[in-house]
Amino acid sequence: MSNSHAATIDDPVDDAAAAPAIELADVTQNFALDGLDFTALERISLSIARGEFVSLVGPSGCGKSTLLRIIAGLLAPSGGTVSIGGQDPATARAAREFGFVFQDPVLLPWRTALENVELPALVAKQGSKADRRAHARELLELVGLGDFAAAPPAALSGGMQRRVGIARALALDPSILLLDEPFGALDEITRQKMNSELLRIWSERRTTALLVTHNVGEAVYLSDRVFVMAARPGRIVAEVAIDLPRPRTLDLLEQERFFAHTKELTRLLLHDAEETAP
Ligand SMILES: Nc1ncnc2c1ncn2[C@@H]1O[C@H](COP(=O)(O)OP(=O)(O)OP(=O)(O)O)[C@@H](O)[C@H]1O
Fold first, then answer.
1. Residue 224 in contact with residue 54, Cβ under 8 Å?
2. DSSP 35
3. Which residue of 69, 111, 120, 156 has the lowest C-beta tally within 10 Å?
4. Nearest to residue 166, comparing CAs of 228, 226, 99?
5. ipTM of the predicted structure?
6. 88-97: per-residue pLDDT in tens?
7. Which residues does the UniProt record annotate as the domain ABC transporter (predicted)?
8. Ligand 1 contact, 60 CB (< 6 A)
9. Atom of ligand 1 nearest to the CA of 214
10. Of all protein residues, whose CA lies closest to atom 5 belonging to ligand 1?
11. How far apart (Å, rounded) are the C-alpha atoms in residues 181 and 219?
């Protein structure tokens, strides 16, 4: 039986389309501190499929942020290979494959919410002024801030500023969202609301998401898979698949299966903490 459209093994276009969103093989990172070399990350290997939501949890200093920086092409690893949809990280970064959301959204105080969201496209000289504005408006609507386009950051609550940060991260239509403790500084209720919003936005935009968090419940609620890291040296010690149905709603937080997963992850983290205690 023949099919003229079937992919062949050698087809580079189909190979690139089939490549995982993020793939790391034996990634190692050494840093020098006070003249001494130390291993911050040791042989990290992982593969994240397109459209997957994956979290990294682990103790402070285990290298989570360093790993994000390597994936984003901001830091060249000491060893190993990184592939972003079949490209090297620097090429992927230049192609604007990444959107970043950090704990502090760092909005420009003299620009309105809309102008902050518009900024990446302005800097990248993308589209006409009218197109940029329309896209920024659409993104503000997406994060539920359509009525706050003209507000300066100082007039927005912490949660609203994070929403602007998410809208800005999506401004150049990235295929991968890298989130480093984005809601760490928020109170618990606002954080839960923001997580629900994040899930909605992620499913609407169909991006790949990689989240760094200290919060085990947050990792379970959001993720398809969670990687547990340990410190000294930073490494992956467990991978947990979260078998909770989607779409996920806040009532999930009271269900037995949710508790079972958070318990398992907490146990893995504590077990590791005991093993690496000084
Ligand atoms: N540029 C650098 N030079 C030297 N050491 C570094 C550098 N960047 C990170 N480190 C060290 O690498 C280790 C991992 O740091 P990293 O910030 O990635 O950890 P983390 O897991 O994100 O921590 P936290 O959860 O506290 O944010 C730490 O010991 C840190 O001091």
1. yes
2. T
3. 111
4. 99
5. 0.98
6. 999 999 999 9
7. 22-256
8. yes
9. 25
10. 31
11. 11
* Cα–Cα dist 69/238, whole Å: 21
- Tell me if residue 52 falls in helix, strand or coil: coil
pTM of the model: 0.91
pLDDT given for residue 272 in this prediction: 67
Q: Is the CB of 213 under 6 A from ligand 1?
A: no
CA of 75, closest atom in ligand 1: 1
Q: What is the mean pLDDT of the chain?
A: 90
Query: Checking DSSP bridges between strand 176-180 and strand 208-212, what pairing results, if any?
Result: parallel
Q: Which of 28, 34, 39, 65 has most ligand 1 atoms within 8 Å of its beta carbon, as the pocket-test mutant?
A: 65
Domain ranges of the chain: 19-97+215-278
CB of residue 33 inside a 6 A radius of ligand 1: yes
- 158-169 and 113-123 are packed helices; what angle lies between their axes, rounded to 10 degrees? 20
Q: pLDDT tens digit string along 170-193?
A: 999 999 999 999 988 888 888 898
Mean pLDDT of all residues in 115-127: 94
Query: Which two tokens mark 64?
Result: 């989570």
Nearest CA to ligand 1 atom 24: 60
Is pLDDT at 5 greater than 50 in this prediction? no
Task: Give the separation between CA 12 and CA 47, rounded to whole angstroms.
Answer: 19
Q: Is the pLDDT of residue 159 over 70?
A: yes
Beta carbon of 62 within 6 Å of any ligand 1 atom: yes
- C-alpha dihedral sign at 59, 60, 66, 72: positive
Contact between 113 and 164 (Cβ < 8 Å): yes
